[in-house]
Amino acid sequence: MSMLDNGTIGVFDSGFGGLTVLRALTERMPQARFVFVGDTARLPYGSKSRRTVARYATESAQFLVREQGAAFVVIACNTASALALDAIKDAVPAPVLGVIEPGAQAARGASKTGDVLVIATDATVQSHAYAEACGALGLRAMEKACPLLVPLVEEGWTSHAVTEEVVRVYLGELRAEAEARGMDADTLVLGCTHYPLLRPVIEKVLAEGAGRAMRVIDSAESTAEAAARLFAVKSEGAIAETEIRCFATDSVEKFERLGSRFLGRPVGKVELIDLGG
Amino acid sequence: MSMLDNGTIGVFDSGFGGLTVLRALTERMPQARFVFVGDTARLPYGSKSRRTVARYATESAQFLVREQGAAFVVIACNTASALALDAIKDAVPAPVLGVIEPGAQAARGASKTGDVLVIATDATVQSHAYAEACGALGLRAMEKACPLLVPLVEEGWTSHAVTEEVVRVYLGELRAEAEARGMDADTLVLGCTHYPLLRPVIEKVLAEGAGRAMRVIDSAESTAEAAARLFAVKSEGAIAETEIRCFATDSVEKFERLGSRFLGRPVGKVELIDLGG
């Protein structure tokens, strides 16, 4: 196991969704300092191109390492992990962990049939990063873009009948397509950091069908577990209580207001930064 | 009536929605050259702060005037019009028309009771730009943010049962709140350039209630009418057939694919530009 030179772990996302990853990280690494960047001035990444996402994500990672002294960077965003992991690794002199690989690993641990379904943003699906990561582990994966789920979560409709119907439409199409291709899927990967807030609705809809029971994999949880396996905080760097410092590139008031939904507790004072775009 | 020094009119939006304004403009000013910018790398504006929207919108307007020689700029975006009209006017040496004022003028022409409802993005509603513009014309306006409507249009669900239900929820809440405040609204302003694609669903839902019949105002139409009233193209600048040149700050393929839904015809070859963010 590697040791962090200091207790600072950098975490970033296009917005608030990555706070679900931060929450899972704080539960497993309570003695670390966390610095989080939400690139809210340029969110969402999920509808944008590889070139644009790579440029934005690299700027966040560089801020965390160069200006905040992070010894380890977690990409708490599926889209940035899918489209820009290599670009970020090239851009910062620190280890970088994305959410795709841990999610695929967790799917391999969960699936008995070897067939998995993945729901994610448009950009993540178009990159086929999950299908490739799953394929490398011997799994077959079918991916589906669900672009309405992030706006529904941000509207706060996490248990609304409309959201349930949207989930029913998306999962119905995905399961039908998987069956048409002869797949016998038993695992669903939540390939976007907003989706854990919809887990109760997703599990309800999955339970409706007459089909096989499905295990749900939350890549936020899987990533936090992978981070805790990879790194320990040196005792001289350890602190008594988790510290979280949050930065955003747009309205800090909105971040402070909405962020607590994802973090599960108040995010505290958020500082405004300019990443140049 | 002013005359344009040349036939070039600059039009911009955060994304594709503004193509509904461009479409209305081409119908009323067929002899003009149009240059359109979709700032797709930084869309949407509707969830962002005034500071950020003003900065982005100013960069688009400057590109249109300085680099494309536009003699007149139309802000084909309600959010940018609401939050950044003055900043844009200060930033470019050309007349600038936003969509809010024409929308409010059209509402005054349509309303008999003097009470109007406005649906728009979160940022437009928080600015209260429509309430102010309507108030200055002697109207009372009640505004409501409908953040799910843009994603539903972009998902292509313009006549989906889910969209109908979302519209029913939003309009039901808005009408109930207006009635609770003693308003007798007879006009609904579509305060976002995506919403004209939902007009059939909106009119269907409006017709369901036992309440007063409602007129629907499309600010894209109103803005095109205002532009055609304000400016004529000098005969030496006039061209035989409408020319449209489109630029985008992110994936031109996606712009070419989705843009035709809004423009009502193929957008042609889209050119990639970098506005620096």
What does this structure look like?
The structure is a homodimer of 277-residue chains. In chain A, the strands form three sheets. The first copy, chain A, has a six-stranded parallel sheet with strand order 5-4-2-3-11-12, sandwiched between helices. In chain A, strands 7-6-8-9 form a four-stranded parallel sheet, with helices on both faces. A two-stranded parallel sheet of chain A has the order 1-10. The first copy, chain A, folds into two domains: 2-99 and 222-272, Rossmann fold (3-Layer(aba) Sandwich), CATH 3.40.50.1860; 100-219, Rossmann fold. Chain A has helices at residues 19-28, 50-67, 78-91, 100-110, 122-127, 129-136, 149-154, 161-180, 199-208, 219-230, 252-263; strands at residues 2-4, 8-13, 33-38, 72-75, 96-97, 115-120, 140-145, 187-191, 215-218, 231-233, 243-248, 270-272. Chain A is of the alpha/beta class. Chain A is globular, with a radius of gyration of 18 Å. Chain A contains eleven helices and twelve strands. The model of chain A has no long low-confidence stretch (mean pLDDT 92). The A-B interface holds A 40-43, 47-49, 52, 147-148, 150-152, 154-155, 157, 161-162, 165-166, 169, 249-251, 254, 276-277 and B 40-43, 47-49, 52, 147-148, 150-152, 154-155, 157, 161-162, 165-166, 169, 249-251, 254, 276-277.
